[in-house]
Design brief:
This protein is an alpha+beta fold. Among the domains are: about 120 residues, Succinate dehydrogenase/fumarate reductase flavoprotein, catalytic domain (Flavocytochrome C3, Chain A, domain 1, Alpha-Beta Complex); about 130 residues, Methane Monooxygenase Hydroxylase, Chain G, domain 1 (Up-down Bundle), CATH 1.20.58.100. It has 17 helices and 21 strands. Strands 1, 2, 6, 7, 8, 9, 17 and 18 form an eight-stranded mixed beta sheet that branches. Strands 11, 12, 13, 14 and 15 form a five-stranded antiparallel beta sheet that branches. A three-stranded antiparallel beta sheet has the order 3-5-4. The chain is globular.
Length: about 600
């Protein structure tokens, strides 16, 4: 490494967790429950784990109570499979759904204050795409803590991590993975407050760095969600999977883009066009406003495209209305106070008396780092990278396929955290020591950061970042076509060229936010290009990936997309089979897990 870019410290731990949100910390806590002597370091990009994106999740967690007289886990599996547009992995669906209630009880026992009804039982609410009896009436399946369920989960796992003396490394970035003898042995970190680079050597490394919403202009994601973990593995020659599967939540609050939770529609909220007409019955005659998110998002965009949206000069963005005026004072003030309060806080309206402006906003990355059912990172469809794991939104097992059902994200987060924690605990029994620093460690980090500091030019990195987000929003959004995506690829190449002309105003390493922004810009460009290349190659419409020029789902694309980054920056695509074991193994309900027609 250069004199300016050198490792200042080496830390040895049993486990390194990159990303201290709900998924990463649930994994850490599970490891410690099995092996209390395990030493763990957890890295977070923000100033405290309590500022992780998990805390923003609102509506609840899908889980079937075994004592429920109407609901059954197999109905939840069916809804997840159908909701995914037949592209989730059925072995993963079964693993997660079967363990859901056990994990609800774990959270309850460890201090999460789930909302309860007057009988003292868990309250439940319904969300889009959740049904009884294989597509029958809506299922009340979501367990919740008011409208701050993610915050409750985060409080719980953070508290357990502190009790077990997890070492937290805050405001830090993973810049490079380290390998020896064909296995992962840790990572290089940039600790922004000190301006130093740290090597953490570990028997097991977990990537749980969250999503990539900042690739788009309007998003529910926090400022830090720039696809860092995805770019990290791509730089190492490892694949990512299904990045073209980006979820647009139907009801982002126009202006800030903040999420107006699906819980509002679960309580009876109705979408209206400019003529105050409920329109979802045209698109989903049975489930209407509680259809899956991809369908509702396309319906809203269609209303806007066909001139039935509202163009509000104050908001400067076409939208539709969400009507929650008829909901009770109890819903507004007790059940969903934070969500309804967002409208008054951020755009100055009272949702008890005013219509609420909403439109689709980027919300969730359904693809990610390909892992098997145990969270082990795959180098290829049939080979794992020993010592390397991924969990949460940065991972793709795949539980969601090409469309995630509401409340399944928090479910995957802590359920797979438990599964991955168990797997790592077993691995640690026989895992070799990582040894000392590899002979040529941190070469990628040195090249990256030296290049940032030594670059000269007048181009502005924030103007490039905003141009990137404009390109992705306009040319690879809710609706996609070949011409626009081809234009997007050329535009992203040009933006990549422009980054070479970005000079930083400060050469300091200490608390240099501009330097962090520059690193994030490279990550955003990498994942944006991967999204568009995958979307262009997938000549069909499936879930959230909607091609205007190929409007039907095609059997030719009944597979996952693997994407690898080449040394010249190009993206090469491969395939991974979609697991259909629930269908193939036969049994009472095998027919419900075939290639279903997706109607709601």
């Amino acid at each position: 490494m250069s004199q300016a870019i050198q490792a200042h410290e080496v830390i040895n731990k049993d486990v390194l967790v990159l990303g201290a949100g709900g998924a990463g910390l649930r994994t850490a806590v599970q490891i410690l429950s099995r092996r209390p002597e395990t030493s763990i370091a957890a890295v977070t990009k923000v100033s405290s784990p309590q500022k992780s994106h998990t805390t923003t999740a609102q509506g609840g967690v899908a889980a079937v109570d075994p004592k429920d007289r109407l609901d059954r886990p197999v109905y939840h599996m069916f809804d997840t499979w159908k909701g995914s547009d037949c592209s989730a992995d059925q072995n993963v669906i079964k693993t997660i759904v079967d363990s859901a209630w056990e994990q609800i009880l774990w959270l309850d026992a460890h201090g999460l204050h789930f909302t309860r009804n007057e009988e003292g039982r868990f309250s439940k609410r319904t969300f889009g795409g959740h049904t009884l009896d294989f597509g029958g009436p809506s299922a009340f399946r979501a367990i919740f803590e008011a409208d701050r369920t993610g915050k409750g989960i985060m409080d719980t796992v953070w508290s357990e991590s502190l009790k077990n003396k997890v070492l937290f490394i805050n405001q830090s970035l993973a810049t490079e993975l380290l390998f020896r003898d064909g296995r992962c042995i840790g990572a290089v970190l940039f600790e922004a407050p000190k301006g130093t680079f740290t090597v953490v050597l570990a028997k097991a490394t977990v990537i749980s760095t969250g999503g990539l919403g900042q690739v788009y202009k309007i998003t529910t994601n926090c400022r830090q969600n720039t696809g860092d973990g995805l770019a990290l593995v791509l730089r190492e020659g490892l694949p990512v999977m299904d990045l073209e599967a980006v979820q647009f939540h139907p009801t982002g609050i126009v202006g800030p883009g903040i999420l107006a939770s699906e819980a509002l529609r679960g309580e009876g909220g109705i979408l209206l066009n400019k003529d105050h007409e409920p329109f979802m019955e045209k698109y989903a005659p049975k489930m209407k406003d509680l259809a899956p998110r991809d369908l509702v998002a396309r319906s809203i965009e269609t209303e806007i495209r066909e001139g039935r949206g509202i163009v509000n000069s104050d908001l400067n963005l076409p939208h539709v209305w969400l009507d929650i005026r008829h909901l009770s004072e109890y819903v507004h003030k007790v059940k969903l106070p934070e969500i309804t309060g967002f409208f008054s806080k951020f755009i100055g309206i009272d949702p008890r008396t005013d219509l609420c402006p909403v439109r689709p906003t980027v919300h969730y990355q359904m693809g990610g780092i390909p892992v098997n059912v145990f969270g082990e990172v795959q180098q290829s469809p049939d080979q794992i990278m020993p010592g390397l794991y991924a969990v949460g939104e940065s991972a793709c097992a795949s539980f969601h396929g090409f469309n995630r059902l509401a409340t399944n994200s928090l479910l995957e987060l802590f359920t797979m955290g438990k599964v991955v924690g168990d797997r790592i605990a077993g691995y640690l029994r026989e895992a070799p020591e990582p040894g000392g620093k590899p002979a040529h460690f941190a070469e990628k980090t040195s090249a990256l950061f030296s290049g940032y500091l030594e670059a000269r030019g007048a181009d502005n990195l924030w103007s490039i970042r905003e141009a990137l987000r404009e390109v992705m929003t306009e040319k690879c959004g809710v609706f996609r076509n070949e011409q626009q995506m081809s234009e997007a690829i050329e535009a992203l190449k040009e933006l990549g060229q422009r980054t070479r002309k970005v000079g930083l105003t400060s050469s300091s390493l200490v608390m240099n936010q501009e330097l962090v922004d520059r690193f994030e810009l490279d990550n955003l460009l990498t994942v944006a290009m991967t999204i568009v290349v995958g979307a262009l190659a997938r000549k069909e419409s499936r879930g959230a990936h909607s091609r205007e020029d190929y409007p039907e789902r095609s059997h030719d694309y009944q597979h996952h997309t693997l994407a690898y980054k080449q040394e010249d920056g190009g993206i090469v695509l491969g395939k991974r089979d979609i697991d259909m074991s629930l269908h193939q193994e036969g049994g009472e309900h095998a027919g419900q897990f075939g290639l279903l027609e997706r109607k709601y």
